[in-house]
Design goal:
The protein is of the alpha+beta class. The chain has three helices and eleven strands, in the order ββββββββαββαβα. The protein has an eight-stranded mixed beta sheet with strand order 2-1-5-4-8-7-6-3, with no helix packed on it.
Length: 220
């Protein structure tokens, strides 16, 4: 079957327009039911420019056009979850200016920092990575299994290898979280490369959450 394309379709990125996503007509997905997550206390925003975004929890890349109205439902770790016309979207920190927000500050590290100091900063950065729907960082959720700092043989630059998992193997935000982890770890001075591997053995369980996260979610 030949696929006809809706006007506005731009490569692999869907464009949000007039309350709907524009899909190729032969590839239109079923629309999931998403409960409104904003309240009267949610901050209203208007997009000042076209902005790259990711649908939550599907993980599809879209472009939200300038002039769109929405509500910030979560602002944690330098990224934003915005409710727009019945759907949730994740806005990366680097695109925060589109909704009037300042970009996250850069990181500083002493020139003679030890591997232990770098590793501590790695875990600090991992705690700035959040599931767009859950107000807990991936460390407290128990999603990070290990983060190892080493030195590359070719130039002695630092490399970090992270093994992490997801609460469910089919989570549409998996690659988004992986990219977020990689980019935030590579923001650390002296780290030239970060490799992030998704693993599902052992499978994630609620017992892996921190005590604070379990207490907050009523899972203790």
């Amino acid at each position: 079957m030949e696929c006809s394309v809706v006007p506005g379709w731009r490569g692999g990125r869907r464009r949000w327009r007039r309350g709907r996503l524009e899909w190729p007509t032969c590839a239109r997905p079923a629309r999931p039911h998403i409960q409104p997550m904003y309240s009267r206390s949610s901050e209203p925003v208007q997009f000042e420019r076209d902005c790259d975004a990711v649908m939550v929890p599907q993980g599809d890349s879209v472009t939200l056009p300038a002039g769109s109205y929405g509500y910030i439902t979560q602002a944690l770790g330098g990224s934003y979850t915005v409710f727009v016309e019945g759907n949730l979207f994740r806005i990366a920190g680097k695109d925060g200016d589109a909704i009037g927000k300042e970009p996250p500050p850069g990181l500083e590290l002493p020139a003679n920092a030890s591997d232990e100091e770098v590793e501590a900063l790695v875990w600090q950065q991992l705690r700035t990575c959040f599931d767009p729907e859950i107000p807990f960082n991936i460390v407290d959720l128990g999603l990070v299994y290990e983060a190892v700092v080493s030195h590359r043989e070719e130039d002695d630059q630092r490399r970090v290898d992270v093994k992490m998992t997801l609460t469910a193997p089919g989570c549409g935000m998996g690659e988004i979280l992986v990219d977020d982890v990689r980019s935030k770890v590579e923001m650390i001075p002296t780290i030239a490369e970060a490799d992030v591997e998704l693993v599902f053995d052992p499978p994630w369980g609620r017992h892996m959450m921190s005590e604070a996260a379990r207490l907050e979610t009523g899972m203790l």
